[in-house]
Amino acid sequence: MASEAVAQGHEAEHHALPAQVAPDVVARELVATTMGASGRFKAIAWTLGVLSIAGIVALVLKWLDQSDDSTRWGYVAALLSFLLSVAGGAPMVAMAPVMAKANWVRPVTRIAAMFSFASVVTIITLIPLVAILPPLVTEGARRRTIWFEAPDYSPHIWSIVGLVLLLITGIGLFYSAAIPDFASMRDHSMGWRQRWGKKFARGWVGTDSQWRTLRMRIGMFGTFYFLILVFVNFLITTDFGQSMVPGWRDAIFPMYHSISSFQAGVAAIVIALWAARRYMHLEKYVHVDAFWSLGRLLFALTLLWVYFFYSSFIVFWYGRSATDISTLNLLIRGPMMYAFIAAIILIWFVPWWILIWNKVRRSVNGMAIGAAVILVGVLIDRIRIFVPAWSVPPDQIHEKWLTKIPGTVYPDIFDILIMAGGISLAVLIILLMTRVIPVLSVWQVQEFNLLSKPIKYVRGQATMIAKPD
After folding, report:
1. Cα dist. 53→45, 163, 423 in Å?
2. Please, are residues 171 and 193 in contact by the beta-carbon 8 Å criterion?
3. CB contact set of 234 (below 8 Å; sequence gap of 6+)
4. Taking the model in full, what pTM does it have?
């Protein structure tokens, strides 16, 4: 077994690395986080629940009142895109770094996988939009979409199928990695949690065959999840974005949406990890090294966002055709110009200025602030894209390009409640999942302790990490 010393930067000599924790203590303490609920937890859960119910009621009332006017559903489409970006992009942290054998990610994977359950809210948001989506063929004229010769119901069916497959694959990824922890709940808890653990552990005892099967399933579901996520991003961006605007042709936009989805997912993981460390008192398991590594990943995705946005923008800027000019006037210089300015500042400029500093990336609070800024920027960017796209009247959708730019569509009370309720419901689902299974993976935290050891390195401190493969 080879090993290497990984330095913790120039400031490592000023920070003592956390001591290792015995395996039995790890199992008992992490399983205990699912038991009981503080007054703060109950207050937050009740608040999120009330907002969620208000959002669902507002969605139903909006459907009853405005189902015949597609131009009023842009903010719901923006919420759909935002939820797909966060709930869809976050589980990638549970897969990609693990396949790269990154040791720092082991305590993070459980939180990342929990975001898969929030895709339920994405599906709920999709249902009214699918019903309102303009038909492919109107009076013999086929509107411009990716469904050239497909049946009329193609965008409706495949969007739903794609999101359902994403949900199933994400839950499969979550459960594949959670089987050893259900066994820990079976052995270190009581009551319904013990019965729950016994049922879902499926006789897990930790044999070599079981471990090989576990890793194979994680790799299989992780690969499928990535492929389905990119496919769903492609469907949502084309069917609910580009096809709604006559003349909007952009081959890079689906990939731009996917990259910003990964960026939003990592930012959400940073905030969730910060909350778990602070309010669940998991400092001994959630080390600063995890925030440092997530900070480098988030910084790289921020720079990638600039690259993909510029690659798309430059085609319209130098093309200067009638379709290019109308697209720029709608999405950038038109009704959402101020949203575009705010989005580019919050997604790129401010995070770049924050995350470029090593001191910020090594700090817990600094990373949480940078991640929160990015999430707000992504939400504004989704509003900037999908609200103008849905504000185009259906009678203009068959034109070669948009000849009349619609005015700014401001959110009504239904839109505000739906967006607040949708985000609240997604957070509530993740919060309730922490009562069902430990928020940190027990077996991966134990594996982290087995593979790493604090040592002195030159005049500072470092972590010696063993490489099992």
Report:
1. 12, 22, 12
2. no
3. 254, 258
4. 0.91
* Under 8 Å between Cβ of 328 and 317: yes
Which DSSP string do the residues of 36-49 spell out, in sequence order? Answer: ---HHHHHHHHHHH
Contact (Cβ atoms closer than 8 angstroms) between residue 219 and residue 59: no
> Got the DSSP string for 176-220?
HHHHHHHHHHHHH--THHHHHHHHHHTT----HHHHHHHHHHHHH
Using CA atoms, how far apart are residues 293 and 248, in angstroms rounded to an integer? Answer: 38
- Mapped onto helix, strand or coil, the DSSP state of residue 388 is helix
pLDDT digits (tens, 9 = 90+) for 432-447: 999 999 999 999 888 8
pLDDT in tens, 347-370: 999 999 999 998 888 889 999 999
Cα 269 to Cα 255: distance, rounded to the nearest angstrom: 21
How is residue 294 written in tokens?
């997530």
The closest of 214, 234, 235, 248 to 443, measured between CA atoms, is 214
Nearest to 136 by CA among 128, 144, 124: 144
CA distance 264 to 269: 9
Q: Looking at the chain, how many residues does it have?
A: 469
Which of 167-170's residues contact partners 24+ apart within 8 Å by CB, and which partners? 167/116, 167/119, 167/120, 167/123, 169/221, 169/224, 169/225, 169/228, 170/91, 170/113, 170/115, 170/116, 170/117, 170/119, 170/225
Six-digit token string for 220: 């299989």
